[in-house]
């Protein structure tokens, strides 16, 4: 496989802290930086992390987690817990400052299975967020983590010009990337985890309040049934409380579905057929949503998916679409079928026979763009439930 | 893009879609804040209002173009043209002072006037010349 073109070269930054000399002496291969505890003083942290494609914290006890704010939060983290520490110690010392702030693009490097299981349970971490290391000592773990990062950055999904067919492309790309480099399969295959995490954070900022609004209309004791179309490896499953939510995701890629099942065994993930028919009964969900899925599909597929989402959503339930509504004309080098918001709303009204009420509209601008590209639309399904 | 650079659209499709998205959001927020209860909760009405606003903008642009073209002096001798100019070009802030219901009526009137104007320009001896222009054909396709 060839390497992929990226926005900037992958450049991991290793925070060695008190062990920076040992980590530097370990002779890590390739492009990287090793920082000591003097390099991350509050005034220097931003410039020290500026070139970082990923930040590997090898000495958590001396790292200033409280200084990771604003854009610095876009840098994906890999945390190496201090050797010999147990879950209670980690929760007490780093619970609020570090572990509870981890998102789907952040990971933990752990040697012991028991410790990983404890952390996974406490902080709702996905299986894919574990970096397995054999030795918890910083200088040894650094080499293993560097190897793992190198392996991820050489994977890519081929795009054949003039040959884009949505179902086949996303199925093949998902299967190729699901196991080793899921972040590339999530947002942008041509960019590294930092870019993808930044996109995810922008989307999450728009989506999370609307999910809370949708959840807020239901009684606490009633399980909240959620369906995601194009769930990928399940990144949005992490945004729902598993004790109050029954999360279901569908995807066209078998590899993605398998990885999602491993990531979130408490959730349900199913394969979506090429006919776009959802394998669920009518009125099964309180919320159905898609994130950057519709704009990759031609109009007939969009129509079929919207219609199916409407069918499986309960009356009074929500449908949400976070999509790109701004794009240049269709080109053979793009995987996007441009559709303006007015055209999409027309399609939405058409596919649901007008049985929806518009509840939310929000434009979304990503940090790397100089224009507004995305939008979040939320609608409520009208009607009276057939079953109570 | 550096902070000193101005945003320069290079892709007209992209610019149009971005304008549509932002206008749609503004329309929704106005409706939700109670400014226009008659369109709240109806996606059809929202997109219809956006369409009407676009029609008003297109009508103003068309009138300005005719006015500034060599045909301008001739057009100004026509009473109907003078009425349209008076209504849509001389009082740019009039629409801002209207109530939501009045504004809807005003915008629907603008769409009707635009259709009428396009039909009249498309007929007549100058119709052939107008139809040669791509922008005129685009307007005809969009509104007629």
Q: Quick summary of this structure?
A:
The complex is a heterodimer of chains A (about 400) and B (about 140). By secondary structure, chain A is α/β, with parallel strands linked by helices.
Keywords:
heterodimer, A: 388 residues, Rossmann fold, 7-stranded mixed β-sheet, 6-stranded parallel β-sheet, 11 helices, B: mainly alpha, 69% helix
Alpha-beta classification of chain B: mainly alpha
Overall shape of chain A: globular
- Total count of helical runs of at least 4 residues of chain A: 11
Give a count of the beta strands of chain A, DSSP E runs of length 2 or more. 13
Summarize the structure in words.
The complex is a heterodimer of chains A (388) and B (144). Chain A is α/β, with parallel strands linked by helices. Chain A contains 11 helices and 13 strands. Chain A is 32% helix and 20% strand. In chain A, helix 3 links the parallel strand 4 and strand 5 (107-110). In chain A, helix 10 (299-312) packs across helix 11 (341-351). Chain B is mainly α and 144 residues long. Residues 37-44 of chain B have low confidence and may be disordered. Chain B has a domain at 48-143. Chain B is globular and about 50 Å long. In chain B, helix 2 (43-68) crosses helix 4 (79-88). Classes of the chains: A alpha/beta (388), B mainly alpha (144). Chain A binds chain B through residues 325-329, 338, 340-342, 345-346, 348-349, 354, 356-358, 360-363, 370-373, 375, 379, and chain B through 1, 7, 11, 13-14, 16-18, 20-22, 24-25, 28-29, 41-44, 46-47, 50-51.
């Amino acid at each position: 496989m060839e390497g992929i073109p990226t926005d900037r070269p992958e450049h991991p930054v290793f925070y060695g802290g008190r062990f920076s000399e040992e980590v530097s002496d370990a002779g890590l291969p390739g492009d990287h930086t090793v920082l000591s505890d003097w390099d991350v003083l509050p005034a220097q942290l931003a410039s020290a992390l500026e070139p970082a494609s990923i930040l590997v914290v090898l000495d958590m006890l001396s790292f200033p987690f409280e200084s990771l704010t604003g854009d610095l939060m876009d840098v994906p983290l890999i945390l190496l817990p201090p050797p010999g520490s147990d879950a209670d110690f980690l929760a007490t010392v780093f619970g609020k400052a570090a572990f509870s702030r981890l998102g789907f693009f952040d990971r933990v490097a752990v040697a012991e299975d028991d410790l990983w299981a404890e952390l996974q349970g406490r902080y709702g971490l996905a299986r894919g967020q574990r970096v397995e290391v054999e030795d918890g000592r910083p200088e040894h773990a650094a080499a293993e983590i560097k190897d793992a990062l190198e392996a991820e950055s050489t994977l890519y999904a081929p795009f054949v010009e003039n040959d884009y067919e949505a179902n086949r492309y996303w199925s093949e790309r998902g299967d190729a990337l699901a196991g080793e480099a899921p972040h590339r399969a999530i947002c942008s295959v041509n960019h590294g985890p930092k870019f993808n995490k930044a996109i995810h954070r922008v989307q999450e900022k728009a989506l999370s309040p609307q999910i809370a609004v949708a959840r807020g209309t239901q009684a606490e004791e009633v399980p909240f049934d959620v369906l995601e179309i194009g769930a990928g490896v399940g990144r949005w499953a992490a945004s729902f409380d598993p004790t109050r939510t029954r999360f279901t995701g569908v995807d066209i890629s078998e590899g993605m579905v398998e990885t999602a099942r491993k990531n979130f065994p408490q959730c349900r993930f199913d394969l979506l057929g090429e006919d776009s028919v959802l394998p669920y009964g009518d009125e099964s969900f309180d919320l159905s949503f898609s994130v950057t899925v519709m704009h990759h599909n031609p109009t007939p597929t969009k129509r079929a998916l919207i219609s199916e989402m409407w069918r499986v959503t309960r009356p009074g339930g929500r449908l949400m679409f976070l999509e790109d509504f701004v794009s240049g004309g269709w080109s053979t080098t793009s995987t996007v079928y441009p559709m303006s918001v007015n055209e999409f709303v027309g399609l939405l009204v058409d596919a649901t026979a007008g049985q929806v009420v518009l509840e939310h509209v929000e434009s979304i601008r990503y940090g790397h763009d100089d224009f507004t590209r995305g939008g979040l639309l939320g609608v409520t399904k009208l009607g009276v439930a057939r079953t109570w | 893009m550096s902070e000193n650079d101005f945003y320069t659209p290079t892709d007209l499709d992209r610019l149009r879609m971005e304008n549509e998205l932002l206008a749609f959001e503004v329309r929704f927020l106005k409706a939700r804040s109670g400014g226009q209860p008659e369109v709240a909760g109806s996606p059809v009405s929202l997109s219809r209002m956006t369409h009407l606003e676009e029609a008003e903008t297109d009508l103003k642009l068309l009138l300005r173009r005719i006015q500034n073209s060599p045909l301008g002096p001739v057009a100004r001798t026509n009473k109907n043209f003078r009425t349209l100019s008076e209504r849509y070009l001389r009082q740019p802030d009039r629409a801002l002072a209207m109530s939501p219901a009045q504004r809807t009526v005003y915008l629907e009137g603008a769409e009707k006037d635009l259709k009428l104007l396009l039909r009249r320009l498309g007929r007549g001896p100058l119709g052939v010349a107008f139809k040669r222009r791509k922008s005129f054909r685009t307007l005809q396709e969009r509104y007629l």
